[in-house]
């Protein structure tokens, strides 16, 4: 299921993980198992995504999805959302976000 991913921009004070989904819908109950980092290199006409690898193995279960000013039963493919996650790895995710560099992105994968 590694093609299920969520790019995390930040974690709000209320604990919601704010970001955007990849191409697939992600239902409640999905367990994210990996935090990965990537970087965009190159100039506008020739951008390349470089996979910087796995930061950590985690076990974060999707409990709530907030989008369109309401809660919904899944993260729609290609949409922004706030996620309520529970499990092991939230502190690691928060630290990864603090340490990411310019043009770097942190994502969860299931």
Placed side by side, the strands forming the largest sheet appear as 1-2-8-5-4-9
- Biggest beta sheet attributes: 6 strands, antiparallel, barrel
Count of individual helical segments: 1
Order of helices and strands: EEEEEEEEHE
Helix-and-strand structural type:
mainly beta
Task: Count all strands and give the number.
Answer: 9
Query: What is the terminal separation in angstroms?
Result: 6 Å
- The whole-angstrom Rg is 14 Å
What is the share of helical residues? under 10%
Mean pLDDT: 94
- Uncertain residue segments: none
Which percent band covers the strand fraction?
over 45%
Shape: globular
Structure explained in plain terms:
The protein has a six-stranded antiparallel barrel with strand order 1-2-8-5-4-9. Strands 3-7 form a two-stranded antiparallel ribbon. The protein is mainly β. The protein starts with a strand and ends with a strand. The radius of gyration is 14 Å and the shape is globular.
